[in-house]
Amino acid sequence: MKIPATVLGVGVLVCISGSALAGQRDGDHGAAVARLTARPEIIQALDLARDLEAGAESDLIELTEIPAPPFGEAARAARFAEMLQVAGLPEVSIDDVGNVIARRAGLGAGETVAIVAHLDTVFPAGTDVTVTRRGERLYAPGIGDDTRGLVLLLNVARILERADIRTVADILFVGSVGEEGLGDLRGVRHLLRRGGPRVDRVIAIDGGSDRRVVNQALGSRRYRVTLTGPGGHSWGDFGLANPAHALGRVTYYFDEAAAVVVNTGSPASYNVGRIGGGTSVNAVPHESWAEIDMRSTDPNQVDRLEGALRDAVTRALDEQNRARDRGELLEADFELIGDRPSGTVAPETPLVQQALAVTRFLGLAPQLAAASTDANIPIADDLPAITLGRGGTGGGAHALTEWWAPRDAHIAVQRALLVLVASAGLAD
């Protein structure tokens, strides 16, 4: 079977035999993809994926320049909803927490596949999000993560309409809020709430690789640890228990203990990301705080890291309180500010196998991977879910110097489209 050059965006034909596809982990899915891509409407759709990239840049610039800081996605959501309607999706709404949801009805009994990209960025209100160009690269905070994901959703919706592709299952196109940082996946949590719309499978669009199939949810637990005391003057009240001094001990003891955890078990990480408190250089602070992130695909590792953190706080407070010569004891407060569940979708799950087969069809060697994305929530709820890349090339995610370039960007659109249709079922 020959793959059209328009699929791969190269000037030659790449051949993959049906038997080669069938020789992979689950040959039935490879054969199914081969049959799917032989259909005239899918051949047209793959060509459209390449053609639509010519106009995708203007969509990307427009959406990027609409600020979408944490908990401030409303303006971008409103415009994205309008763009989905123009793309041909008549049932578009914005839900109670700000998710944009567009339903494309299937011809079956209501089974639903959701494809999701997030509206929010990590950058606070007031960040300059003007797009600039240097050669083929477009620079702006959030231009890749995940504004390009939103553009991919728009192009998939346009392709389904223009190629008149009908699916068995309904499809939900979702622009989610609160994926980043302290948003704690609040958009997808709300989408999958009890009593919410039916969702049977989820495809999240995030990250840049065209080869990765994320089937492992990288869980994280985040705490703000606040140490409080009486506070006072740096000279006149010297000898009081000092929260800042204690917090330094916390960081040191936690780093020591957490390093043991990450070297004796499943892959894990930890990070003290922010530290604050105090009122003046010449004042004993009345409070000092730190925000700590702990991650693993193994929930037991996250529990171990939390235990290390709590032990470090107990030890540091005990030492600082014993060292004081007067005044009240220091106290500690743990505030859970983020809790992303971990888990794994088994590689033999049909959605995972479909994604692997599609990736091979496109001439790429697929890789199963772990990440923290909107897919964490459905995976924790035992729903089949994966994350696919937004495509193109990029760098500097979560930095003011973030950039994106359209090199072979159509491949990600083709991949997402084929996995979506394979999962939703092509109606005869």
Terminal CA distance reads 22 Å
Task: Report the C-alpha radius of gyration, rounded.
Answer: 25 Å
The name CATH uses for the topology of the largest domain is Aminopeptidase
Under CATH at level 1, the class of the largest domain stands as Alpha Beta
Class inferred from helices and paired strands: alpha+beta
Q: Please state the overall shape, judged from the principal axes of the Cα atoms.
A: elongated
Task: Provide the spatial order of strands within the biggest beta sheet.
Answer: 3-4-8-5-9-19
Could you tell me the mean pLDDT? 93
Give the count of helical stretches: 13
Tally of individual domains: 2
Major sheet description: 6 strands, mixed
Strand content: 15-25%
CATH architecture of the largest domain: 3-Layer(aba) Sandwich
Helical percent range?
25-40%
**Residue runs with pLDDT of under 50 for 5 or more positions:** 1-25
How many β-strand runs? 21
CATH superfamily of the largest domain: Zn peptidases
Describe this structure as you would to a colleague.
The structure is a single chain. The chain is an alpha+beta fold and 428 residues long. The chain folds into two domains: 2-218 and 346-424, Aminopeptidase; 221-340, 2-Layer Sandwich (Alpha-Beta Plaits), CATH 3.30.70. Helix content is 37%, strand content 25%. The strands form six sheets. It has a six-stranded mixed sheet with strand order 3-4-8-5-9-19. It has a four-stranded antiparallel sheet with strand order 6-7-21-20, with helices on one face. Helix 3 packs across helix 11 (350-361), helix 7 crosses helix 13 (410-424) and helix 11 (350-361) packs antiparallel against helix 13. Mean pLDDT is 93; it is low at 1-25.
